[in-house]
């Protein structure tokens, strides 16, 4: 019974996030990427490491696994796969979410820009 209650609460909490992502604009997300991410990360299919690892194909990729980038121990040991939900949790405050990461970016706080950026990242496949 407690398990069912927990699952019901989690589903209720996840629904607004799923709806927000569904209404996100990948075109706006591309502009956010250019303004916020593009200085350090490539979005090209065969893009290499700039300052950070390339973000083409990041959704669905195991964290800390791009060859040629010297990840922190925190990221190497994170043990998760980047999903839209994980990006929603990480990008507003990367160093709070995963202490010890090398990324110095303070975070993307605007929820609309965040949704659009993640929608854009999902198109990079």
UniProtKB/TrEMBL annotation:
<dbReference type="InterPro" id="IPR002327">
    <property type="entry name" value="Cyt_c_1A/1B"/>
</dbReference>
<dbReference type="GO" id="GO:0009055">
    <property type="term" value="F:electron transfer activity"/>
</dbReference>
<keyword id="KW-0813">Transport</keyword>
<keyword id="KW-0732">Signal</keyword>
<dbReference type="InterPro" id="IPR009056">
    <property type="entry name" value="Cyt_c-like_dom"/>
</dbReference>
<keyword id="KW-0349">Heme</keyword>
<feature type="signal peptide">
    <location>
        <begin position="1"/>
        <end position="20"/>
    </location>
</feature>
<dbReference type="GO" id="GO:0046872">
    <property type="term" value="F:metal ion binding"/>
</dbReference>
<dbReference type="InterPro" id="IPR036909">
    <property type="entry name" value="Cyt_c-like_dom_sf"/>
</dbReference>
<protein>
    <submittedName>
        <fullName>C-type cytochrome</fullName>
    </submittedName>
</protein>
<dbReference type="GO" id="GO:0020037">
    <property type="term" value="F:heme binding"/>
</dbReference>
<keyword id="KW-0479">Metal-binding</keyword>
<feature type="domain" description="Cytochrome c">
    <location>
        <begin position="24"/>
        <end position="125"/>
    </location>
</feature>
<dbReference type="Pfam" id="PF00034">
    <property type="entry name" value="Cytochrom_C"/>
</dbReference>
<keyword id="KW-0249">Electron transport</keyword>
<keyword id="KW-0408">Iron</keyword>
């Amino acid at each position: 019974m407690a398990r069912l209650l927990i699952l019901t609460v989690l589903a209720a909490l996840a629904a607004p996030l799923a709806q927000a992502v569904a209404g996100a604009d990948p075109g706006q997300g591309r502009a956010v990427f250019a303004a916020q991410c593009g200085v350090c990360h490539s979005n090209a299919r065969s893009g290499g490491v700039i300052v950070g690892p390339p973000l083409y194909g990041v959704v669905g990729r195991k964290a800390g696994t791009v060859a040629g980038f010297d990840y922190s121990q925190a990221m190497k040991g994170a043990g998760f796969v980047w999903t839209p939900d994980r990006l929603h949790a990480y990008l507003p405050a990367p160093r709070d979410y995963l202490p010890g990461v090398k990324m110095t970016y303070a975070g993307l706080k605007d929820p609309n820009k965040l949704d659009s950026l993640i929608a854009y990242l999902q198109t990079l496949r």
